[in-house]
Amino acid sequence: FPTWKRTLARRTRESQMKRFCRAQAIQRRLEEIEVTFRELEQQGTKLEKLLRDENDSLADQQTQWTNQLLYLVQKKNNLMTEESDLMIAVQELKLEEQQCQLDEKLRSYMNKEDALKTPEEEKAEQEILKQLVEVVNKRNILIQLQEEKRLSEL
C-alpha cells in the first residue's frame, strides 16, 4: 500500500470520526432543547393560568407575570432559532458524508486506466461525478441559506 493511500485512508477515517462526534453533539443539544421546550411550556401554562384566574390581583403582579411570560416566549423563540440552525447542520453533515463516499467511489474509478475501463465503468464514473456535483450544489445552497439567515438576524 503506497504511503499516499495510507495517508488518504487515515484522513478519511479522521474526518468520519469528526463528523460522527459533531453529529452526536448536535443530537445531544437537540434533546436538551426539547427538554427545555417542555419546561418553558409548563412555566408558560402556569403563568397564563395565573393571569386568567387572578383578575383581582395587583396590577404590579399582573405586569410581572406578563413580563415573565414574554421572557419565556423570547427564550422559546431563541431555542427555535438554534434548533433550526442545528437541523441545517445535520443536513450539512449528511451531505458531507455523502460527498466523502462519492469521492471515494470516484477515486477508485479514476485510479483505473482509461484504456482498461469497461463502458459500464465509464458510465458509472460519470454518474458518480454527476451525483457529486449535485451534493456540492446542495451544500452550497445550505451555506447560502445559513448566510442569509445570519444576515437577516443582524
From TrEMBL:
Protein's cellular compartments: Membrane
Q: Does the keyword Coiled coil apply?
A: yes
Keyword field contains Hydrolase: no
Molecular function (GO) terms for this protein are:
monooxygenase activity
BMERB domain: from which residue to which, for each copy? 13-154
Coiled coil ranges: 23-50
Annotated keywords: Coiled coil, Membrane, Monooxygenase, Oxidoreductase
Q: Which InterPro entries match?
A: bMERB_dom, F-actin_Monoox_Mical
What domain of life does the native source organism fall in?
Eukaryota
Give one Pfam hit by family name.
bMERB_dom
Name of the protein this chain belongs to: MICA1 monooxygenase
Q: Organism source for this protein?
A: Rhodinocichla rosea
Please name the gene that encodes this protein. Mical1
